[in-house]
Amino acid sequence: MQREMTEEIEFTIACVNEFAQKYGMANADALRFLDLYKGLDYVLNGYAVARNQPLELTLEDLRDVCRRNGGVFT
C-alpha cells in the first residue's frame, strides 16, 4: 500500500513538472493551475489508467480537462 502511494505521488509530481515545461509555466504555477481547473483530480482519480498510457497522452488529457473547466492556454 505504501509503495503504491509513493508511486502515485511520484507520478503526480512528474505530471505537474512535465505540464509546466510543456506550457512554459513555473512548477508552482502549473500546480495551482492544475488544482484550480481540476487537472489534479484527473490525475489522482484516474491514476490507474493514466500511469499505463504514454505521458504525452496524459498531458493532452490534462489540457483537455483544464479547458473544459475554464483553463485558458496561451
Overview of the structural elements:
The protein has helices at residues 2-22, 27-36, 39-45, 47-50, 55-68. The chain is mainly alpha-helical. The mean pLDDT is 94.
**SS-derived structural category:** mainly alpha
Label the overall shape: globular
Mean of pLDDT: 94
The low-confidence parts are: none
How large is the share of residues in beta strands? under 5%
Number of strands: 0
Quaternary:
single chain
Run of helices and strands: HHHHH
Helicity range = over 70%
Radius of gyration: 12 Å
How would a crystallographer describe the biggest sheet? none
Question: Span from first to last CA?
Answer: 39 Å
Our count of helices gives: 5
What are the main properties of this structure?
74 residues; mainly alpha; 76% helix; globular
Q: What's the arrangement of secondary structure elements?
A:
Layout: H1 2-22, H2 27-36, H3 39-45, H4 47-50, H5 55-68
Task: Give a short summary of the structure.
With 74 residues, the protein is mostly helical.
